[in-house]
Specification:
Shape: elongated
Strand order of the largest sheet: 1-3-2
Number of helices: 9
Largest sheet: 3 strands, antiparallel
Structural class: mainly alpha
Length: 269
């Protein structure tokens, strides 16, 4: 289920996450634009990530996708288009391997000084700044427009969601997580059963379907063993053997219940 109550992040918490802008290697837009100029001002920070090579990746993927939609909705609140969220929320990567990490970047501030704003020189300017020679750009000074800079609704929502996962519940939407985990488990189980079936080349397709049906309860129990829907192939093999035994015992009982040619049929009195 989605969060029952999403508390707004405190100012102190917002400041803590906004400090990620100082990590140039993970800051947007330097890596996105391909420009690494010294004065390139980062605007977005990474808030959610996942990749399938990491333990717990289905939970990360579910949170990533649920958070992305909630953050975009917060950014576009009251609008009929997605122009704001297209700028404030950026998704990259597919998360399919250790070299392809899915990342969700969110814009931290809106308003405030433009990048070419010279501002007003104050004691808060960078050390050594000469007001008659240097220009203090944007965030490097207490410019006339400095007080108008605010956190974006997208960033506020993103921080609240991260804090919810960290402190209240591991999943933003529990139903979505279990649905994704079960889909992955069923796919992995089918692959395991197809491999196990090769050990019984004389069994028919109908035999296989019946065996799986007889083993279904034991096979489904395996789904609770791993948070990422992985299948214990030894456990699947044991369950299959049990189901196969039950299948052929049932066939044997049906044969014994049938009338045997040349013998008198047993009838009830």
């Amino acid at each position: 289920m989605s969060p029952h109550r999403l508390d707004p992040a405190s100012d102190e918490t917002l400041v803590k996450y906004a400090e990620k802008l100082e990590d140039d290697h993970a800051a947007w837009p330097t890596w996105r634009t391909g420009t690494y100029a010294h004065d390139d001002v980062p605007t977005h920070v990474e808030m959610f990530t996942w990749n399938s090579d990491r333990s717990g990746w289905i939970g990360d993927k579910s949170n990533f996708e649920v958070a992305r939609d909630l953050i975009r909705s917060a950014a576009d609140a009251g609008r009929v288009d997605s122009e704001v969220s297209d700028e404030q929320v950026y998704e990259c990567g597919g998360g399919s391997s250790a070299w392809d990490v899915a990342q969700l970047f969110v814009q931290v501030y809106e308003g405030g000084c433009s990048e070419d704003c010279p501002g007003t020189h104050t004691p808060e300017c960078r050390p050594g700044c000469d007001p008659y020679v240097d220009f203090c750009h944007g965030q490097e000074c207490e410019g006339d427009c400095h007080g108008t800079r605010t956190y974006t609704p997208a960033f506020r929502e993103a921080v609240a969601l991260v804090e919810y996962v960290k402190n209240d519940h591991p999943f933003l939407n529990e139903d979505d997580y279990y649905e994704q985990r079960n889909e992955t488990f069923e796919k992995n189980l089918t692959e395991a059963l197809d491999d196990i079936r090769l050990s019984y080349p004389y069994d028919t397709a109908a035999d296989h379907r019946s065996i799986v049906e007889h083993a279904s309860d034991a096979l489904w129990e395996l789904s609770h063993w791993d948070p990422d829907g992985l299948v214990d192939w030894n456990g699947a093999g044991e369950a299959y053997v049990h189901g196969r035994t039950q299948h052929f015992l049932e066939l044997g009982r049906e044969v014994m219940r049938n009338e045997i040619p040349g013998q008198l049929a047993i009838t009830s009195a």
